[in-house]
From TrEMBL:
<dbReference type="GO" id="GO:0031390">
    <property type="term" value="C:Ctf18 RFC-like complex"/>
</dbReference>
<dbReference type="GO" id="GO:0006260">
    <property type="term" value="P:DNA replication"/>
</dbReference>
<dbReference type="GO" id="GO:0000775">
    <property type="term" value="C:chromosome, centromeric region"/>
</dbReference>
<dbReference type="GO" id="GO:0034088">
    <property type="term" value="P:maintenance of mitotic sister chromatid cohesion"/>
</dbReference>
<comment type="similarity">
    <text>Belongs to the DCC1 family.</text>
</comment>
<dbReference type="Pfam" id="PF09724">
    <property type="entry name" value="Dcc1"/>
</dbReference>
<keyword id="KW-0235">DNA replication</keyword>
<dbReference type="GO" id="GO:0000785">
    <property type="term" value="C:chromatin"/>
</dbReference>
<protein>
    <recommendedName>
        <fullName>Sister chromatid cohesion protein Dcc1</fullName>
    </recommendedName>
</protein>
<dbReference type="InterPro" id="IPR019128">
    <property type="entry name" value="Dcc1"/>
</dbReference>
Length: 317
């Protein structure tokens, strides 16, 4: 039996894609359209004769049980959950200073309601499966009961920690490996484990997208994702980036066996070239990154004190 839910985006949301109510099954989304008709409409059901002598010779028939004045039509739609999730979920910031220490959020951002993953999904007007696809795409994760999504610096820093740990332990990222072995090498860096697992889920082969005991990274996903990510971090820096320097950094942050595969062909549509310089490009616009830590709740975490997550928890809602 399929469950049915009626959902809509919050009234305060500025997302343009549908703000009206939708009917969702687990894997499909339908627009609801009210239809008026000048004809009479009856809801009927089969009617059987009663076991009485008076009705013994009556034939089965139909019985009217309702006469609705208005009906609703269902129209299947394919709407992405990503823009809704980006509006509802606050950004988790990570920055690295010159000493090699990280600066991470320690309080909940103002202006955002703290919602769990399922509570967030309840406010996204798409089916459950599409919500889950969007959640994985933006690398969302739960932290102390609330949903968050990492900034591009948080993503890049977490990925580099994963690569460094895998290299030091001789882990082949494109083969199945125990998540716990990787986590033991990353834990002292202070990243939330849920964020590490979310990055692994984003880069996992389609048939292995789970957040369990084992993980692996799909080379064909990782290479273009990392290239676009590195390029996006340059936005807002007010400096030109030579394409050759970008390609070198891209290759330097791939497993050794994958270095030769890095090519601009992998990220077509994500950049523009002018002379020998390269710029990040998304949806027809040169995009400025959201790596700024001007919002409240950013504090330095030194190598001697990685208890930032406890500070975050103490802030409450």
């Amino acid at each position: 039996m399929k469950s049915l839910t009626i959902k809509s985006a919050p009234t305060t949301s500025s997302v343009s894609a549908p703000s009206h109510a939708v009917l969702c099954t687990t894997g499909e989304t339908f627009q609801l359209r009210q239809v008026h008709s000048s004809n009479s409409i009856f809801l009927i059901q089969p009617s059987q004769p009663n076991d009485t002598a008076e009705e013994a010779f009556r034939s089965p028939g139909l019985c009217t049980i309702a006469a609705p004045k208005v009906t609703l039509e269902l129209h299947r739609v394919a709407t992405s959950s990503v823009p809704h999730l980006r509006k509802l979920i606050p950004t988790f910031h990570v920055q690295e200073d010159g000493d090699g220490d990280f600066e991470m959020m320690t309080s909940w951002p103002t202006g955002f309601e703290k919602r769990s993953k399922q509570e967030t999904f309840a406010h996204v007007p798409t089916c459950e499966e599409e919500c889950e696809r969007g959640w994985i795409e933006i690398v969302a994760f739960e932290l102390n009961g609330g949903s968050m999504r990492p900034s591009i610096w948080a993503l890049l820093s977490t990925y580099k920690a994963i690569l460094s740990a895998a290299t030091s332990q001789g882990i082949q990222l494109d083969s199945r490996f125990p998540v716990e072995d990787l986590w033991q090498m990353i834990e002292d860096d202070g990243f939330p484990r849920a964020l590490v697992e979310a990055v692994l889920a984003r880069l996992a082969p389609e048939e292995h997208i789970t957040r369990g005991e084992w993980a692996s990274i799909d080379k064909s996903k990782c290479i273009p994702w990392l290239g676009a990510l590195i390029l996006e971090t340059e936005q807002g820096s007010n400096r030109e980036r030579f394409a050759s320097d970008f390609l070198k950094e891209w290759k330097d942050n791939l497993p050794e066996a994958w270095r030769a595969s890095a090519s601009l062909d992998f990220i077509k549509g994500s950049y523009t070239l002018k002379n020998s310089t390269i710029c990040f490009y998304r949806d027809g616009v040169n995009t400025t990154s959201t790596t700024s830590s001007t919002s409240t709740g950013i504090s330095k975490v030194t190598s001697g004190s990685r208890k930032w997550h406890e500070k975050f928890r103490n802030t409450g809602k």
